[in-house]
Amino acid sequence: xxxxxxxxxxxxxxxxxxxxxxxxxxxxxxxxxxxxxxxxxxxxxxxxxxxxxxxxxxxxxxxxxxxxxxxxxxxxxxxxxxxxxxxxxxxxxxxxxxxxxxxxxxxxxxxxxxxxxxxxxxxxxxxxxxxxxxxxxxxxxxxxxxxxxxxxxxxxxxxxxxxxxxxxxxxxxxxxxx
Length: 178
What we know:
With 178 residues, the protein is an alpha+beta fold. A five-stranded antiparallel β-sheet has the order 1-5-4-3-2. A hairpin with a 2-residue loop joins strand 4 and strand 5. Helix 3 packs antiparallel against helix 5.
């Protein structure tokens, strides 16, 4: 996704951020092996509650921490002889809420100030009276720029999580426990 779609994708999950991994065994066994791999990993940390999986990069190696860090949210589901871990990588919901509120409130403030300035304007009004309106009009664009900047900062963490999740599918978790 390019352009504004990539910047605004913090509100939804585009297809390129979704992934599905096949693991051996049923969802309970696969969940136990994923939990063991999480405990042994210094790269990522996470937790499994029931069939739900939440994985994020370990703070010691993360480029981005807090609510703007990318997080993998997934579900374990039986798929015949195998188990599927299907999910997506996205910002924490609080981070998405913060950016969305910034853009919405910035837009409302800019519109309110523009309407007030238009009602107050006279034929003799000049650019000097319009100058204070520049910053409030830029607030929504600053929110979009902030979202784009946070997304770029989190790419290294997202790649590391993807690599770790790929190792689950291809590597050590597919072997039966000793």
